[in-house]
Amino acid sequence: MYVNAIEKVDQYxxxxxxxxxxxxxxxxPATATLFFVNDNGVAITCKHVLQFIAQADNVNKNxxxxxxxxxxxxxxxxxxxxLRDLEKKYNYKKDTVVQIKNNFIGCFDKITHxxxxxxxxxxxxxxxxxxxxxxxxxxxxxxxxxxxxxxxGRSLCRLGYPFPEFDNFQLNAVIDDIEWTQQGNAxxxxxxxxxxxxxxxxxxxxxxxxxxxxxxxxxxxGGPLFDSDGLIYGMQFMTSHLHxxxxxxxxxVISGGKKMTVTNHPFLHVGHCVHVDxxxxxxxxxxxxxxx
Length: 292
Description:
This protein is 18% helix and 40% strand. By secondary structure, it is an alpha+beta fold. The two termini are 22 Å apart.
């Protein structure tokens, strides 16, 4: 049903790859999604995705400052006590994120800087990329222009990058820094998930969000919501968890030839997308051209 639509939407939907390093030394990959609304290097994503990207500079600068002070500590019997004092100054604990590196995959040949706009209420942001000579995405979103199509029961699909399978990164121990490499897997698979419209969210008296009967997966935040023709109906931003009430408490069952006692509290995971009309309003507010 969505074969042709996914191929169409895939031309302008791209992953954001991130690597995070904790003070304890754990390096973990993460993904998010954006999609382009025109051929001028303008994309939309979630506000919470943008804020995560934007905090990287401060997080990384703090660690550079920390390293500078740490490296000046005298290497004597007082070193470890002074180091603990320095860790308290920067509020560094084992699980504190001290470095973040982001990479926009398959978007442009180069990026010199970006400009962004955050929606005041909704989890929506515009990113304008600057300085590129060549676009590496092949098309742009086309938004549905008939609000009568957005009805309860309509089947729609989302596309994004929820599973961070890339591993082209490493710790450079010499300079105490995480970095991207030319080795390893540099890609993550795109992943579609469909569902039907279940309910709508209202904000300031207007339709603001679309709820689907299936979850949007972590990493799909910022990905497009579309129909079987590839028309865009919204953007995935959140999943909520509805308690079903079918609770099971200490029930004995037979599984794998063994008797066991199980307890289960099931939830229905439903996805939420920013409504297409709110996206178009926000683009118009910032004089961003788009297609319907």
